[in-house]
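Hi V.,

You were right to ask for the full record rather than a summary. Here it is.
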Amino acid sequence: MPSTEKRSINTTFRSRTQTHTKQVAEWKKSHLLYEKLFAAIRNQINDLEEKDRNRQMWLSLISPYEKLKSLRAKGVMIGKKAFATARKHAKKTGAGSPVAKPQTPTIPTPEEAKEAIRLHLVENSQPTADKFTSRKGVPQNIVRTLLDTTEAIYYSYHKKYEGTPLHVHTKLLQGLSKDRHVRDMSRRKAQSKLNVQENRLSAAETKRLKDCVQTYEEHRQHKTDRQKHMKERIQNLRNGEIVILSDFKKNISLMKGQNEMGNDFFKRPQRTIFGVILFYKKGDKIGKDIFTFVSEDLKHVAHFIISAWEDIQKSNVFLSLGVTRINFWNDNCRGQFRNFQLLSYMIGLREKYTVEIDYFTEYHGKNQCDSHFSRIMVIYNNRTLRKDALVTTTEEFIKVMTDGFNDIPDKEREDEYSIHPHL
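Predicted structure:
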């Protein structure tokens, strides 16, 4: 057989063999690809939780083996952008790998601050300032202070002008350590601002402002004098003399708890809290009994106050004191304590006792009744907001208050408390 014919037969056989081998390889390749795909999906199901199987992760499993066109031909509707993102994820992170959560941008820390943290808060064995470990027990506010803008500017200056110290006058540092100097500096600064502002005002406006300042100073002095007078009056009590201090608390809301609906805020029933503190001579000390009246009547009027005072005069502690002199101290609130009805009642008591009537100055601040009201709110919140036990009626509220005051240890108990319903 001629060599040329033999060569052509071999070429034909080789081409047919190569074609068959290529077809077999493509079939095996496609078969292996789908086997890998299903195996990868099975592995992802076994290894990952349900929350980590998101759309991008599943698309990244298919993207290495399929094209968007072929998937759409099979009826799988996938967006072009979503498929491109999945292919990018498969190439960068790996097919079927979980999608990392986006990281929030961080503010770069100045190198000077890192160096300061390394020197002050890091173990000596730590080689660099980029990877530092804080010592155990170091407060985080120290780190925040070192990262503050002022400190960063200082370290930047120190690095730029190394060897050049910052000079501060010694007398200034000594003066700053004294509160008096700081107050004097503040007064001078404020006075300078007032002088500048005064130069911009007219004569009439300047006079009006000075009158307002004088009125304010007189009010502040009067407030201090009234509070001082009440303390002296209590300290100088004699047998048979009492001081009655009265005040209203802001109405409280019942049915508070840990679990509330939005509309519950407008449906809560309210109660009035009226506090009366009775000061009297008790041996060598001053005794104090606190009466708390709880009522569904939300009107803070004279009739409410008079009926509460009548109940106090019938109490055992009042009858046992042999009262001959009463000093009333009331809030200077128009409509509650400053009215003719209440004034007429107190004057009418002069048939039985020697009566003195005193009022606080407007905006006088807090008194001992407010301290008692704060204890009430602590007990009430501990019951309702922490133990999730709703208080729905006046009787339940009185029981909660009574139990709360009874739980106060005897060593810490300086006052006598009593809670009364007031209808």
